[in-house]
Amino acid sequence: MVYLTRVEKFNAAHKLWVAEWSEEKNTAVFGRCANANWHGHNYTLHVTVKGKPDPYTGFTMDARKLGAIVKSAITDHVDHRNLNLDVPFIPTGIQPTSENLVIFFWQQLTPLLPPEIALYRLKLYETDSIYAEYFGE
Amino acid sequence: MVYLTRVEKFNAAHKLWVAEWSEEKNTAVFGRCANANWHGHNYTLHVTVKGKPDPYTGFTMDARKLGAIVKSAITDHVDHRNLNLDVPFIPTGIQPTSENLVIFFWQQLTPLLPPEIALYRLKLYETDSIYAEYFGE
Amino acid sequence: MVYLTRVEKFNAAHKLWVAEWSEEKNTAVFGRCANANWHGHNYTLHVTVKGKPDPYTGFTMDARKLGAIVKSAITDHVDHRNLNLDVPFIPTGIQPTSENLVIFFWQQLTPLLPPEIALYRLKLYETDSIYAEYFGE
Amino acid sequence: MVYLTRVEKFNAAHKLWVAEWSEEKNTAVFGRCANANWHGHNYTLHVTVKGKPDPYTGFTMDARKLGAIVKSAITDHVDHRNLNLDVPFIPTGIQPTSENLVIFFWQQLTPLLPPEIALYRLKLYETDSIYAEYFGE
Amino acid sequence: MVYLTRVEKFNAAHKLWVAEWSEEKNTAVFGRCANANWHGHNYTLHVTVKGKPDPYTGFTMDARKLGAIVKSAITDHVDHRNLNLDVPFIPTGIQPTSENLVIFFWQQLTPLLPPEIALYRLKLYETDSIYAEYFGE
Amino acid sequence: MVYLTRVEKFNAAHKLWVAEWSEEKNTAVFGRCANANWHGHNYTLHVTVKGKPDPYTGFTMDARKLGAIVKSAITDHVDHRNLNLDVPFIPTGIQPTSENLVIFFWQQLTPLLPPEIALYRLKLYETDSIYAEYFGE
Predict the structure, then answer these.
(1) For a tag site, which of A2, C69, E21, F101 has the least CB within 10 Å?
(2) Would you state the pLDDT for residue D33?
(3) Chains touching chain E at 3 or more Cβ pairs under 8 angstroms?
(4) Helices (H), D20-134
(5) Best mutation site among D39, D75, D81 for testing chain E: the one with the most E CBs within 10 Å?
(6) Which of helix, strand or coil describes residue F45?
(7) Model confidence at D15, in pLDDT bands (50, 70, 90)?
(8) Is E11:E41 a contact under the CB 8 Å cutoff?
(9) pTM for this model (two decimals)
(10) What ipTM was assigned to the predicted interfaces of this complex?
(11) Which DSSP string do the residues of C30-64 spell out, in sequence order?
């Protein structure tokens, strides 16, 4: 088994805000991330798949095809978008934290991968100093 | 003369949109950057000052003091903010492109520097692939 | 389970030197790392915790709280310090290699984490080319 | 157990081309990677070993020794070389993809490590956006 | 005047070899860079233009247009190519060093820029440790 | 004229401390940088020379030769050393700040460069967030 990772980037706006909470509680919990008029990030997503390299091509999976799938499943929907408002697969009222994003991205991506390829890990950098990883369970 | 650079980061939302233009024209000119609900970036700002190192301290300028000035003059106002709506020193209707931001940041910063220190260059990364530089004229 | 990583940095001096060994043996084993007057590094520490994202906040753990704990448990004690002489939780005579540091950092950090959060991995970069990882056993 | 990683770099030429296939098929499958006159990359290899730090030295393994072994086993043979033509341990007709390279590198490296040290992971960056990982099985 | 930089990447093979020289002299001068079967690099090109930001768009120049021009003028011709053999605008027998590449790239790029925009600087990274810069004279 | 840059790294200990000042004043001015038992950094030095590429080699200057000169003139003397105590060309009592280091490095380097090559710029990163540049005057 050899693991192949493809890195894709997107730029998006978001805020963290629980509708059931007061402004005071939102600010106490989320700090500047609760700014009413949003803020944003350059996100970097590492998509890792796992499989046996093909004896002819030497590919676990064609990295260009993997890139195209990630684009159509994820980055086309989130790049230059508002993660709270604009993305059909992020449910309203769920915080678009990196931890939740990797779970939603996993659900988007797995149905589109070839059957012989397992999605192994998603790693999402929100900044250089904060990132989330998900292994599907 | 020795040049000293301090790097600071901030995360902000923005969009590019000319109010006098139709939606069609805005989209034609700005593409995804015109998304109505905003998008955002992790910005990285390099602030370079120029001076003669002090014979006692060896400092062109104390980098911690420079960091504190950049924070109070710039990043406190733009970090986790909306660059179109939330920042007093960015005039309404002016596009918050990196090119315009470095000009506004220059105006904010110069009055706060010690008289013996010249601001030499501002360099603002909007993404890893796009950055603007300004030398004050 | 979603893994959340917070990255923190510190700058420290150290040397590698076994007191029971001759200067010749120390130099033969440690090379330039045995320099009597110390050398130093910009260390980068990746702290990864593991947990279930909170249904309200979407946080495995508040990254700012994690940062504050790492600061009080680790970086406040090692930043701008001498790792052989200045750090109470690094025993005298134990080499402050990256491999040993991640073990000591683990011991410092685990008692301070909330009970529902497991420390998963510490990864310490000593340079861009050398890093150590520890998973607690 | 503490994991120690040493990072080494090399620059090499290669192409992806299955001799049994027509030019049309090679181009359809490999795209620009099938360019007849080769292309090339700056590769970055992360070699991770696993062991118990020595009580005297604090080393899982001396990182300089690990670097020397990686150099003699791998990078001396691939740096400034053509991966399809110049490397004895890459069989003719096998595609020098990152996925296959990490398998060949694993075979080169394991016989040269000290018996108490286990090779844990090879991670090979072909570009900033594509990398392969191998754990030996 | 505000300077705008767009970063583009390409992967290419090359070798350094003076046809009039013996193999011995080529190897003595160029070392491993003279390897007969080529080697290669991931090149990173920073293209900096200079101009006055447009009062409506806030752009020195639309970074997407600049990227498209760099692609059609340069990277389409050198990406996944052999710099000694495959590139019409690199004369046969001229060494494809980074120093020469930035001069050829400059000649390719300047005729395609809008008249109000001046090309200010090309900066080409051959590796993380070696780069060339050219200002047009 | 084409500018060529070679990047070299070194790891060193230092502290900032003016002997004529009290401990209180040193701590007030230098903060944690005055720690009695030193601290340290991974320094990254960018050495930029300027010249006309040779018509045969295409080199402004052979980057390997430049690297060798930087090593013998600078990094051999400062790598794994204490910048306050161990380096002959840093005068006692002068603070080893990045600003002063680039001046001393300039003096070391210029006599060793070939006559047709001008040293253009030294850029020294002390951390990812602080760097000094010197152009020789």
Answers:
(1) E21
(2) 98
(3) B, D, F
(4) 23-30, 63-70, 76-78, 98-109
(5) D39
(6) strand
(7) very high
(8) yes
(9) 0.98
(10) 0.96
(11) HGGGG-TT-EEEEEEEEEEEEEPPPTTT--SS-HH
